[in-house]
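Database export, one record per block. Field names are fixed; values are copied verbatim from the stored entry.
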Amino acid sequence: MAAGRDRRAAYRRGLAAETIAAWFLGLKGYRPLGRRFKAVGGEIDLVMRRGRLIAFIEVKARSSFAEALDAVDDQTARRIAVAAEIWLLRHPALADFDQRFDIVLVAPWRLPRHLRDAFRPPR
């Protein structure tokens, strides 16, 4: 039972962190195109647009920025890259836009930290 409660609490924290990240990026001029996009083999927390840029964004919430950044590894990058390819196939009008992989770190009582072009997906 406790494991189920922990999973639900983690899910709610993730949703809250994504909402905070979307709001924060909106203040910086980004517009949302998608949230929690799921595809076979991957998921993207946020897909945002700013001008002719599509940003595929991983949101990580932990007790510190360092812990949040440590949670993004090569497996995470591959998962996002797979989902991004599928997202672009489903949105062909945006396929020629510039693309970038960003991370937004969320920690308690701090403004989020936006890391632009944070990683290149491993092949």
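Remark 1: The beta strands are 31-39, 42-50, 53-61, 98-106, 113-115.
Remark 2: The chain has a mean pLDDT of 91.
End of record.
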